């Protein structure tokens, strides 16, 4: 859940914790087991909360700790788990510890909590190494020392307002231990860990052979800045903390990591039995719309990740990526795009796979990406730092439409004319929640039915997958006697297996139709 964009209870145009609490019955009706909340901590909002100034409080724009406690209590009564988004790789430049570091001298304990280093070249005018930040520009910023002279540089792999912690300093690890326990004591069910392959940098901070790799791919691919072996010791410790709380009351606490690493085999190291319970597997999200590509990433995930005893954690959308309806879109001669049909098919495919599945708010409404936001409303720091609209994230973060025919579509409770923090297009009316609930053919009902069947059918959930031979362009596998088939092609194909009763599908009565439908059915043989 991207809290800013879910539901606004105060009329200021920004979603908040009370809005999340008000939406819990809707989420329970959809069939979710738990919610992951984007950061709501005090923050100057240079990266919408991922620049944390205080890890143990609530930013007033989202509510307060008392409202958070009410949200947790309400969720527990409904049987919905609550996960918090924790950001251990970096903090805000307004965090008290970073302000203290700026005020302290080079070599001080305050600066040791971060990556401060002397510059290169005459008078230290060049950055300590050639790394580039993921959001564009150099990964280093020079500070002005307390005496007014140009001084050292500090590392920030995202924006200058997000200095990276130095996890080689024991005091940092101890502080995050305190933070975890603060929220676990308030009843949270676990954490989604931002940049979970980060934290540690190469101890010598050497030059990279491909310094612009992170900025070019907007992914954590610099092997000197990410995926260092020491990070696994952190997750083993965090796992032990969670199990300590589970031992007290029998309620499992979950750790799920945002893990971006080059291969499924490296990904699997993060979900070994004593580390994270889950780690988002992004390869399916990044796969092109192609049967062979989907089969390859699914097979690699199951072979390498499930082999650890963990489950693969599938995701097709999130708050950082173009929504599937747009990402899979391809215009047809008739003018209607294939994106919605492909997104529906991918949803059923994901829900039929063994492992965990995460849904991003609005995915269940079939929301496309908003691609034509004016430059003057864009808030993504990628746009501010690069001047480019490529890969900016505002388009998937536009506040949700709940009801009505015009903005704010029930998102805000403010007076008439209240404006959401990002403008909603007129066509959001076609995807409003009230319309989706009333239309049994909508995305919402597809997701609700799929989630209900996923919970009810013993063939799904944990377990094995068996690939089936099919016509070219069709992907099919069996989970016990349940078959899932997806047509990636452009022509109809007959259902390639015996059996009739379709449990959940697009218009598949004549087989698996073009337009990329998917079907589940029981194998009658």
From TrEMBL:
Stored InterPro entries: DUF3459, GH, GH13_cat_dom, O16G_dom_2
PANTHER family (UniProt xref): ALPHA-AMYLASE FAMILY MEMBER, NEUTRAL AND BASIC AMINO ACID TRANSPORT PROTEIN RBAT
Name the UniProt record assigns to this protein: Glycoside hydrolase family 13 protein
Family recorded in the similarity comment: Belongs to the glycosyl hydrolase 13 family.
Any Pfam family hit: Alpha-amylase
Segments forming a coiled coil: none
Keyword Hydrolase: yes
Keywords: Hydrolase
Domain of life per record: Bacteria
